[in-house]
Write a structure and sequence with these properties.
By secondary structure, the chain is of the alpha/beta class. The chain has helices at residues 2-15, 17-21, 28-61, 72-82, 85-92, 96-110, 123-136, 140-147, 151-173, 179-193, 216-219, 253-258, 261-267, 312-338, 353-369, 403-417; strands at 198-208, 227-234, 240-248, 278-279, 282-283, 287-289, 300-301. α6 (96-110) packs across α7, α9 (151-173) packs across α15 (353-369) and α14 (312-338) crosses α16 (403-417). The longest helix is centred in the first third of the chain and has 34 residues, at 28-61.
């Protein structure tokens, strides 16, 4: 308002004010009446100016539209009372019982009093905000009116809950198996997929992102789109047990492998029992199944190259390996269909994204372990042709020549025991 008065004063001063216009007028009563009229009109013009300015600025300071049910009202009166099992499954990708189980598991991390000056959402609502976003991948601005909070609060909930999931749930549902658990994984993998002496399948998960301009080349993968890369290992049930996330999409799978914790575990012998179990009459490490983008090692098997002639035994090996390797491809489909945040990460920082990927994979295991129903309609949002998977082959120089004996041993097994 002071700025407006100053502006008006300068304008009137430049014009000379009412005194200049009244110069030469000798009638004093007329001069007083004219001054009263002049200042009245000036006051009206000033008020009009201030009102117009306030109207223009209001759209910048009050953009938020609140829903009819706000905050606890909508949560308590709609979600908790009116949501049916199908609603819980559709919005949270899990049953109501599993949702509150997750809340209770996260309570030690999320129940601490906040130092923020404003009221904090109850724990269950914070988890609901985060899980809703991870499941549906709708924008913060769309979710915020449902819970009567701002978009920044939604963002904070996603960050806070994701860290809590990785801290408290990941050690329970996504961890390195014990020696006894590895033996059970071998039995399950052989029974379900017909591939012996195997503890899982290995592959890469590319999560599409909007890369910063100065990092575009680093995150542009071999298919020409930007992504963050995660190396993932699953068991015969399609549950994740090792994940290394956060690599730029331009990195090759073989390079990621050499820089992952899985590589360290294998070199230290922590992926295999002591002493080694026997297979086909010889002590042999457990194996993981990969594709052509991984190096051939005595603990990683991949198909024979098909750019040349192959024997019937080698063709049989390739068929059996690819069939068994499909367990991780199916797991990726279920993961991305259930947690559609992974289909396109537009509003997540690169620093937070590895944690959110780990949180989604952990929640995947929670839902699978608790037999939460999976709706096949969720798969309709996945369009494989939109983001074709980068899969450049690993250099042959990285292959271990001694691993050929392991592959030949598997060929001998399949030939001896026939079709599984």
């Amino acid at each position: 308002m002071q700025e407006s008065l100053l502006l008006l004063y300068l304008v009137m001063k430049r014009r000379g004010g009412p005194q200049r216009e009244m110069a030469g007028r000798g009638d004093e009563p007329q001069r007083a009446a004219w001054l009263r009229q002049y200042y009245t009109q000036r006051q009206k013009r000033l008020m009009t100016l201030l009102i117009a300015r306030r109207r223009r600025s209001s759209c910048y300071f009050h953009p938020r539209a609140w829903p009819s049910f706000r905050n606890a009202d909508w949560w308590e009166r709609v979600v908790l009372k009116d949501f049916q099992p199908r609603d819980w499954l559709e919005k949270f990708r899990m049953s109501k019982e599993t949702f509150f189980y997750v809340c209770n598991q996260l309570r030690p991390k999320l129940s601490h009093p906040s130092i923020q000056p404003h009221p904090v959402l109850p724990l269950e609502q914070r988890v609901a905000v985060a899980v809703w976003h991870l499941a549906t991948n709708v924008e913060y601005q769309t979710i915020s009116p449902l819970f009567g909070v701002g978009p920044s609060t939604v963002q904070n909930c996603v960050k806070e809950v994701s860290y809590a999931i990785v801290l408290l749930l990941k050690p329970l549902y996504l961890r390195l198996p014990s020696e006894q658990e590895l033996e059970n994984m071998v039995r399950i993998f052989s029974a379900r997929w017909g591939f012996p002496h195997c503890i899982g399948a290995l592959d890469s998960l590319h999560v599409p992102i909007h890369a910063p301009a100065h990092l575009g080349a680093d995150y542009c993968n071999s298919q020409g789109w930007h992504s963050v890369l995660a190396q993932v290992t699953v068991d015969g049930l399609g549950q994740f047990w090792d994940i290394c996330a956060g690599f730029p999409g331009s990195m090759e799978n073989s390079t990621v492998l050499e820089n992952s914790s899985l590589w360290v575990l294998a070199r230290e012998g922590r992926l295999f029992p002591t002493p080694l179990k026997h297979f086909m009459g010889r002590a042999q490490k457990y194996v993981l199944l990969g594709d052509a983008s991984y190096p051939l090692r005595d603990w990683i098997l991949k198909p024979y190259p098909e750019d040349g002639p192959l024997t019937p035994q080698q063709l049989q090996f390739n068929y059996r390996l690819k069939r068994a390797h499909s367990v991780i491809e199916n797991a990726f489909l279920r993961l991305k269909a259930r947690w559609q945040f992974l289909l396109k990460c537009d509003d997540c920082s690169l620093d937070l994204l590895p944690t959110v990927i780990l949180a989604c994979c952990t929640l995947h295991n929670v839902c699978e372990a608790h037999d939460s129903p999976f709706n096949d309609e969720w798969l309709e949002v996945i369009e494989p042709a939109e983001f074709s998977k980068p899969c450049p082959p690993a250099p042959m120089s990285m292959d271990d020549s001694s691993a050929e004996e392991v592959r030949a041993l598997m060929c001998e097994y399949f030939e001896s025991y026939g079709e599984g």
